[in-house]
Amino acid sequence: MTVKRFCDNLTVSSDILGEQLKFRNGKLAQNRFLKAALTERVSTYDPENPQKHGLPTEFILNLYDKWGHGKFGTILTGNVLVDPVSVFLKIFSIIVFIQTNLESAGNAIIFKEGDGEERRALFSKWAKNMKQDGALAVVQLSHGGRQTPITVEPNPWSASDVKLSGERRFTAFGQPVPLTVEQIKTQVVDRFVYAAKFAHETGFDGVELHGAHGYLLAQFTSPTTNKRTDQYGGSIENRQRIILEIYDAIRAEIPASTGFLVGIKTNSVEFQEQGTTVDDAKEMCQVYEDKGFDFVELSGGTYEKLAFHHMRDSTRNREAFFLEFAEKIRPVFKNTIVYLTGGFRTVKAMVEAIENGATQGIGLGRPITAEPDLPKKILEGSVASSIKNALDENDFGITNLASNTQMQQMGRNSYQQASEK
Ligand SMILES: Cc1cc2nc3c(=O)[nH]c(=O)nc-3n(C[C@H](O)[C@H](O)[C@H](O)COP(=O)(O)O)c2cc1C
To answer: Has the keyword 4Fe-4S been applied to this entry (predicted)?
Structure first.
């Protein structure tokens, strides 16, 4: 069957994309491709039973069995949540859950109340499937904060009490409750650290903190959502504090010498009034570089202002949505590896972004739900771009839905079963 692609003729060599990336802690990625985080939403959902809540399913294992044969340098999970149960009370022997901060029902979750052999075995299998052809396996650790759907939690945590306006992905959002300083430690920092240790112990090569797209950590760094007047609000230094505390606490448990990666996905821009600007992002990235982060993945936008399309004509020809922001930020990175995600479709644009110095690694999201082995094909020189479907590329809603559907299809059988068909 012939498929339509963005570009049919390979006019540049893809060799540079096959080059290894060496992280500052010595770990090697076999090439420059990053499978971006794509929320799967097919884990178990049972908030009344911690042991059965947020467990990865066969479906996820099948999905990553396929990406695990796609020749990525690094594979990220979809967001894995760290806070399913913030307050956990036992009243007359009945367990009452008061807070649960997911990105969606069906997220995979790592939390101490749900620890056990079954969860550990499933996460270990997940990591193993991701690493089958040499990729590094990295868990994206996330906390929904005010972007938790109202059906999951009417009063989620946030930096401040700024409610998200409107609806996204057919869901509304509740009135957030600002975390106290004590809760920042016990309900956020400690939970991220616990999840990182769990990931390390179950065979993953690292974690990526989700500090982008308006989730909890971005609610702290962005002035649109952080109105605090204590040590976690005001200056950039204060707004970034929670992330650095998480980093330090993870490194106290899992030192860089173990080879375990700690990275962050961060917004290069938010396109919102009072939102993170590229200058803010540059200042924050300088701190990540100085702190010792192994990698930074640059992205942009929030639920209130989605940015997974071309906001400016200047980026259209160069494909990557955040390219011009990445170019401004890039000079701060000396030892931290930088990935750029969003919009890459042709080998030519990927190669140029690297040659021009905007990024070292290429993150791919929607193209690899249509074609889980796209990096392999590109590195073999057999394709010049990703598949072009009939949908409007600039419509995130519809292309997101298409990716979800493709993931549903991919998860139905294993790599082996699909190959035998
Ligand atoms: C179905 C879908 C799920 C996504 N889930 C996540 C997620 O869990 N975490 C995240 O950081 N980004 C998520 N994203 C954003 C992607 O990682 C990526 O940044 C975005 O799709 C732009 O890249 P692309 O143009 O290559 O698709 C998701 C995107 C899609 C389409």
So the answer is: no
Q: What single letter denotes the amino acid at residue 354?
A: I
pLDDT at residue 277, rounded to an integer: 87
- Are 103 and 144 a contacting pair, CB within 8 Å? yes
**At 127, which CATH number?**
3.20.20.70
Residue 315 lies in a domain: yes
Q: What is the total count of domains within the chain?
A: 1
Name the residue range of residue 147's domain. Answer: 15-420
| Token representation of residue 167 | 């609806």
Residue 360 lies in a domain: yes
Question: Which of 44-53, 71-80, 142-151, 371-380 is predicted least confidently?
Answer: 44-53
Identify whether 393 is part of a domain: yes
Angle CA(142)–CA(261)–CA(411) in degrees, nearest 5?
Answer: 55
For residues 29 and 301, give the distance between their C-alpha atoms in angstroms, rounded to a whole number.
Answer: 27
Asked whether residue 5 is assigned to any structural domain, the reply reads: no
Probe residue for ligand 1, chosen from 366, 378, 398 as the CB with the greatest number of ligand atoms within 8 Å: 366
